[in-house]
Amino acid sequence: MNSRSIDTDFPTFPLGAVRSTLPASPTTPPQPVTTCVRVAYPSRVNAMALDSSKIVPNGDGTYLAGELLVACDLPRHVEVSIVDDGPAVQTTSDCAHPVLARHAALLIRTVLGVHERLRVRATAPDLPAHIGLGSSSGQIAAVAAAVNEIYGRPIPARRLVRFLARNHGEEIDEDLHHLLPVQCLGGSAAAGLIPGAVQVIAGAQVPLLQAPLPDGMHIVLGMPHEPLNWDARASLAAEARHFDGFITTGRTHGPEIAYRLLHDAWPALIDGDLRPLGHLLFDYRFRMGSIANCAFSHPDLLITAAKLEHIFSDLLADVLTLSSVGPTFCAVTRTPGPCEQAFADAGLRTLRCRPANSGYSLHNGAQS
After folding, report:
1. Example GO molecular function term (predicted)?
2. For helices 275-286 and 243-260, what crossing angle results, to 10°?
């Protein structure tokens, strides 16, 4: 599996290209129900892949690993307006990730068969790219949701999750017209489109289970002060060199993960007890080889992980996990202060937020 080529197995594609169609697309182009929409769209922590052996692309270019996510109130703000002239999709001069914003708007415009010109402005959390928090997929999902709102939400939320995951791409340095087809399991889209701070996305990008986190819970993130600065191609190439480890972990532990999730962790979560879910996530990351597989994301990841284990074992947090392939760690806790101190003691930058239980929100008026 290490022989996979980024150029042949992950070929770039044109901005706005629909590579996987939307099932049951509207037969008649919908009419706009408004001329301007503003949304605040949450971020996500990818706490666990359900079967990491399936992070390699399926025969049709989809990814069937599944995901357990935690939605975070770290919003990106998107405004989409209908305008009279200019390109079909245009971005403001201060738009964050304008290439991704254009891609998302073009995708929805194409599948709906609409012709209004759209202007997009987006602001994102002040965080680096490629730290495991879904900045690219979150940007695409937020813009797509806003365009869908312009037309009265003709695409149902669950279909939109799958469509966006299967048409995901990430920016390539110095290329404004093509994207790289990086893995996408659907978590960033589901975090805003489907209510519930804790969610399970099935292998075919199907939102399967959702539950709120109780009041009083905090999310504490810990990330390197100087994360690796690489583009999507370099990041994907590094991950591809470690696909064998992901496959081994998934094949070895996938059945246990599924059983414990469905018969232990999720029933307890529904009753308000996060600790069994915390044990599953801790074992997956720290005992089943997940963090070792992800060590390419930062040279100090394994050393840092060893410094952080006590956060869970000393009961400072109900959940301690890595997000995606890292290098950001996440604690879900009622006592954020000690967790922040533990992250800082391990040399990490900390960020505190609340769970996002309600999906994305709509706001009136133009951004200032």
Report:
1. ATP binding
2. 160
What does residue 332 show for φ and ψ, rounded to 5 degrees?
A: -110, 120
**Residue count (the chain):** 368
Handedness of CA 219, 296, 162, 202 (dihedral sign): negative
What pLDDT shows up at residue 183?
A: 85
Upstream peptide bond of 42 is cis (omega within 30 degrees of 0): no
Apex 198 CA angle, 194 and 202, nearest 5: 70
Q: In the CATH scheme, what architecture does the domain 218-353 have?
A: 2-Layer Sandwich (3.30)
User: With left for phi above 0 and alpha for psi between -120 and 50, is residue 66 left, alpha or beta?
Assistant: left
Determine how β-strand 218-224 pairs with β-strand 348-353.
antiparallel
CA-CA distance, 167 to 140, in Å (whole number)? Answer: 10
**Residue type, position 213, single letter:** L
Residues 6+ away with beta carbon under 8 Å from 126: none
Q: Which residue has the tokens 């797509």?
A: 144
Helix (H, G, I), strand (E, B) or coil at 259: helix
Distances in Å between the Cα of 108 and the Cα atoms of 135, 163, 170, 230, 350 are 19, 10, 17, 29, 36
Q: Are 200 and 261 in contact (CB under 8 A)?
A: yes
pLDDT at 276 (0 to 100): 98
Annotate 166-203 with DSSP letters as a single string: HT--EEETTEEEEEE-----SHHHHHHHS--SEEEEET
- Evaluated on CA atoms 110, 196, 136, 295, the torsion sign reads negative
What is the band of 23 on the pLDDT scale with cuts at 50, 70, 90? confident
Residue 232: enclosing H or E segment and its boundaries?
A: helix 232-240
Q: What is the pLDDT of residues 148-179, one digit of tens each?
A: 999 999 999 999 999 999 999 999 888 899 99
Q: Supply the CATH classification number for the domain 6-212+356-363.
A: 3.30.230.10
In this predicted structure, which of 99-108, 170-179, 357-366 has the lowest mean pLDDT? 357-366
C-alpha to C-alpha distance for 142 and 140, rounded to whole angstroms = 6
